[in-house]
Specification:
The protein is α/β, with parallel strands linked by helices. It has helices at about 40-45, 70-80, 95-105, 155-160, 180-185, 200-205, 215-225, 240-250; strands spanning about 5-10, 20-25, 30-35, 55-60, 85-90, 115, 120-125, 130-135, 145-150, 170, 190-195, 225-230, 255, 260-265. The protein has a single domain (about 5-265), classed as Ribonuclease Z/Hydroxyacylglutathione hydrolase-like (Metallo-beta-lactamase, Chain A, 4-Layer Sandwich). The chain has eight helices and 14 strands. The model has no long low-confidence stretch (mean pLDDT about 95). One zinc ion binds near residues 61, 63, 139 and 174.
């Protein structure tokens, strides 16, 4: 598992040239797309991500800022003549939505679109070099986080804070502050946690099932994470500097998830 490239780091409304959530995880010769907000395929082109290498897509939940770009991307893959299968993992109702969109457009994809509904928690997928598990987060609608582990990094290793044969990455999706989340990603090497708000807006965060800077950093601290990436910034903030300042006070190994930047899991 080499690293993660950020394609979208904003919350619901695009602002300040920031886009809704999307990230690309590189696992050897495979790319995993995590969430696919509106504009993701434009970002894929801008940052020269090889669409044909996207092997699996993981959708955390059905708020539009996390999947409104999906049908566009799938449609383009078809138009570009993709033939290799594409695996989409997401909440069960997503399959109905995709089928409706494809059926009413009379779109016949030249590749096999395989949909896999997410289980409540546990095993999601396995490839030659990695395994993927999911867990529930504490959001307004059903929402899942994903734990990616390079082969060799077993859950026991993760629980013990070790990953001798590979890196682990936890994508914690949208969530309100929930210490139980730290238990689910204990010992992870790299962790993404949303920080929709600065810490003075804890009440807003609580009411909207989102988190603040210090809350995200507290989860990383409790989890014993190696690094924390923060994102899903509210459109009310032009300057991201204070996000890094506040989170770093609690968890020094914090980085802003910046669009177009690849964070290498060294
Ligand atoms: Zn969101
Ligand atoms: Zn959401």
């Amino acid at each position: 598992m080499q690293g993660v490239t950020i394609l979208g780091n904003n919350s619901a409304v695009p602002a300040f040239d920031r886009h809704p959530t999307a990230q690309v995880l590189t696992v050897r010769d495979h790319l995993y797309l995590i969430d696919c907000g509106e504009g993701t395929q434009i970002q894929i082109i801008r940052y020269k991500i090889r669409r044909s290498k996207i092997h699996r897509i993981f959708i955390s939940h059905l708020h539009g800022d996390h999947y409104f770009g999906l049908i566009g991307l799938i449609n383009s893959m078809g138009l570009l003549g993709r033939i290799q299968p594409l695996h989409v993992h997401g909440p069960a109702p997503l399959w109905e939505i995709l089928q409706l969109q494809l059926r009413e457009a009379d779109t016949h994809l030249p590749f096999d679109l395989q949909f896999h509904p997410l289980p409540d928690e546990g095993f999601v997928a396995e490839d030659a070099h990695s395994t993927v598990h999911c867990f529930r987060t504490n959001h307004r609608i059903a929402c899942w986080g994903f734990l990616f582990a390079e082969k060799g990094a077993t859950r026991a290793d993760i629980a013990a804070g070790r990953s001798p044969a590979g890196r682990t990455y936890a994508f914690c999706a949208d969530t309100k502050y929930d210490p139980e989340l730290a238990e689910k990603v204990k010992g992870v090497d790299w962790m993404y946690h949303e920080t929709t708000y600065l810490d003075d807006l804890r009440a807003n965060a609580e009411a909207r099932y989102h988190s603040t800077t210090r809350q995200a950093a507290d989860i990383a601290l409790r989890a014993g994470a190696g690094h924390l990436l923060i994102g899903h910034f509210s459109s009310k903030y032009a300057d991201l500097g204070p996000f890094l300042e506040e989170a770093s006070e609690v968890f020094p190994n914090t980085l802003l998830a910046l669009e177009g930047t690849t964070y290498l899991f060294k």
